Amino acid sequence: MNQSLPCLPGYNFRDFTKTHFGLPRTLIYSKGVPVPQPIFSATTKRALELLDAQNKVLDTEKAAELTYGPKRSPKREIQLPRHLAMDKKVLRFSGYFREEIFDWSRENYRIRPVKVLYYLQDDTMEVIEPKTANSGLLQGTLFKRHAFPHPNGKGRKYLWKDLNLRKDIMVYGINIRLTDCDQWTREYLIDAGLELNEPEPIPPDPHQQQKLTMGPRKEMRPRSLEDEKLHKFLTNDRKVLRFYGIWQDILSEPPEMRRVILQYYLADDTLEVLEDHARNCGRIPFKVLVRKQKIAVDANELPDSFPKSYLEVKEDDMTWFKPQDLRTGKDVVILGKKIFLYDCDEFTRHYYKAHFGIEDMESIGVAEKPKPAVSR
């Protein structure tokens, strides 16, 4: 039972000898900043003194281990799975194989260069033959990407260790000779510990060498009209003069200016007109305004002596469009559509400069009228 007196007036006794009535500080300054001052009891102070004495006896590393626990082991490097670590890493070899020819006396064999690709991701291979224009051979991907079986082992497949320069690999009965590789493949194989052989050149194809030494053939007879057309087609195939123009569509309501592309094909002297649609213009996505055909300069301009009433107009009686009739800064009429040509591409400029000596095929700036504001 608590025997102390109640805290009431007349029941407590004051120490009349006390002269200092200050309060203890609750804040101390650390680096110029006031921080709370911890108030320890006698037991807590004694425990802190023992802890300081213990830290002085122990070394710093041991004291830190006792205070914060044992050290953590260093983090292990994350090892990616093989299909991610080797993704898009390909060994690229150059080589060739020899194809025997039995049905032609002028050619006994062919040398066909190929590219051999080895994918480190899944140990698959692919053989590709570069395409040659007008070769008459089935070129491209000869063997699709898959694991190539090794001829010396049942169930065994080709690995990257089996590939080396100046070495033959047998792929489904075709003997492919590896002659060279790219720089990344060379560094990878050397780092992997493979002794890489020196590269060797691909032997020349005897038939191609014979064609180079024969020279051009002499013409034994004059060219006919069909030969002239064939020669023109072979010479000018895929050569197109491209002009940019503006066509005023007066039939639309209201009349508007449309940008068009006029293309002249040098192989057969035909023309076509395509609409140059702007993005999100809202028009039907069919750009052909005039299909590819031979177009007369003006079918209505015939001599007065021509009997129009009972004779049809033949091709010999009409003047067809030629490259000389097309120039920038000039109006042309194509099937009743008047088109102003204001620009052309670089190939067209070079063609006119080389064949006609025209150097003033400059671009003409064309400004469009501002569209009327739409009331909302």
Automatic annotation (TrEMBL):
Region spans: Disordered: 199-221
Ranges that cross the membrane: none
Molecular functions per Gene Ontology: alpha-tubulin binding
The entry's keywords: Cell projection, Cytoplasm, Cytoskeleton, Repeat
Keyword Oxidoreductase: no
Gene Ontology biological-process annotations: cilium-dependent cell motility; mitotic cytokinesis; mitotic spindle organization
Compartment annotation: Cytoplasm, Cytoskeleton, Cilium axoneme
Any GO CC annotation of this UniProt entry: mitotic spindle
Keyword Transmembrane helix on entry: no
Domain DM10 residue range list: 87-193, 237-356
Protein name, entry field: EF-hand domain-containing protein 1
Organism per entry: Araneus ventricosus
Record gene name: EFHC1_1
